[in-house]
Every structure is written in C-alpha cells, then in structure tokens.
Design brief:
Layout lengths: L1 H11 L16 E6 L5 H4 L13 H17 L4 E7 H11 L3 H12 L2 E5 L2 H10 L8 E7 L1 E3 L2 E3 L13 E3 L11 E9 L8 H9 L4 E4 L2 E2 L7 E2 L5 E4 L1
Parallel strand pairs: 1-2, 1-4, 2-3, 4-8
Antiparallel strand pairs: 5-6, 6-7, 9-12, 10-11
C-alpha cells in the first residue's frame, strides 16, 4: 500500500524537499509553463534512455518551485500554471488513472490559477494579454518540460516518436511583448539545451535574459532539475 501511495505523497508535497535559498520577491505574476510527458508506446524501445518513466516529472518539479515561490513571495503571490493538457490526457490513458485530479490537487494546495493549453501561441497570448499587463506584469516565467536548443517541445514523444506537434520555437519569441515583464523579472528554462540558442533569442526578443542549460538537465524527485553531465552548465544569456 505504501509503495502505491509514495508517488502521490511526493507529488502533493507531503514528503520533505530541499529548502530554497532566500531571494527578494518581485511584484507581479509568477508563471510556470509545464510540458507534457512522453508515452511508453514510443519510449519502451529506448531501454535506459527512455524518457518519463514517471508521469509527474515536470509537474513535480513545478510543484517544488511553486513551494519555493510561496515561501519567498508570500501567500498572496499570484502564481499561474500553464499546463499542456493533451499530454496529460494521453498519459492518463496509459496510466489508467485521472492525472488531472492529481494536478488539480496541487492547484488547490497552493492556491494556483491553473490553465490548460494545447498550442504554443496560447502561451504567447497569455503572456501578452492573459492579465492587464499595464498594471500586472510578469515577475517570473519558468519552463518545465522537454526542449532542444531552439524549441520548447510540449508533446515530445507523445504523438510522434522522438518528435513533437506542439511547440514554442525561438523564431516565435518576437511575438512576445517585452513590456509585459516586471523590472528584475526572473526567467528560466529547466529543459535541456535551452542555453545553447534559445536563451539568446529570448533575450533579444524580450529584453529579459533567460537561464538555460548548455547540455542536458536531469529531473529529480525531491529537488529541482540539475545539469546532467560534468560538462553541462547553466548560463544566463
């Protein structure tokens, strides 16, 4: 029984995580963008290189980061999750359980605004006009999911093996209005390879630097993702 409950306890935050370092909060909206998991129908052929054995890799990491923000910015901080809904619908069928119920429980526990999206342009539209941006700026924007050097891949290895049909590409970033970001806004991609190209394009398009990894990231259970290899590193460009 306990073995079956353990993943749920971890996801909901009923087991301890590493504390966050202190940081000065920035007024505005904190946005966590969460991509979908791969499906075993494709990944089972990859052996040890298979992705997303646990469906909640990205949800769990976003939950850890949300707890840190709550501790640093306070109970009234406005936190929004943008979650790639189709990926969790498909993975629910694989898992034979209602994953949206688990995600909703995180929303309830941390008093989040939860929005499901399907296409990258919906993310851009929310950044630009999801709130009255003249008065309610974006203080924090972070991505948890699959990515390559040039693209957030929301459904990597879900619809198509080792490819995607839903993304946000670096060439689309010029559609984001840089004025929506608060002074001192924090932006970070927790996906692989973002620091190799997309971080620079983001900075050029919005005027705000984006943290990203040169190399790969490894998603953990009780802490935020880390640079995977000894030569992989975080950069802020």
């Amino acid at each position: 029984m306990m073995k079956r409950l353990l993943p749920i306890l971890v996801l909901l935050g009923l087991l301890p995580i590493q504390p966050a370092p202190a940081a000065a909060p920035v007024a505005g909206e904190y946005i966590m963008l969460v991509g979908g998991p791969s499906l075993m129908v494709w990944e089972k052929y990859k052996g040890e290189a298979a992705h997303d054995h646990w469906w909640a890799n990205f949800i769990r990491a976003a939950r850890i980061r949300t707890e840190q923000i709550r501790a640093q910015a306070g109970p009234d901080a406005k936190i929004t999750w943008l979650v790639y809904g189709p990926g969790y619908k498909d993975r629910s069928q694989q898992e034979k359980q209602d994953l949206f119920g688990f995600i909703g429980s995180v929303r309830d526990a941390f008093n989040l605004k939860l929005i499901y999206f399907a296409k990258g342009n919906e993310v851009i539209n929310y950044l630009n006009s999801g709130q009255p941006r003249d008065s309610f700026k974006v203080a924090d924007f972070e991505y948890f999911g699959h990515s390559n050097a040039k693209c957030f891949m929301f459904d990597y290895s879900s619809n198509i093996e080792s490819a995607c049909k839903s993304w946000l590409h670096e060439d689309e970033l010029k559609k984001i209005n840089g004025k929506v970001f608060a002074r001192g806004a924090f932006v970070k991609s927790w996906g692989c390879h973002t620091g190799e190209s997309m971080s620079k394009k983001w900075h050029s398009a919005t005027g705000v630097p984006m943290w990203g990894v040169i190399g790969k990231t490894q998603y953990m259970t009780d802490e935020l993702p880390v640079a995977a290899g000894k030569d992989d590193k975080w950069v802020n460009r």
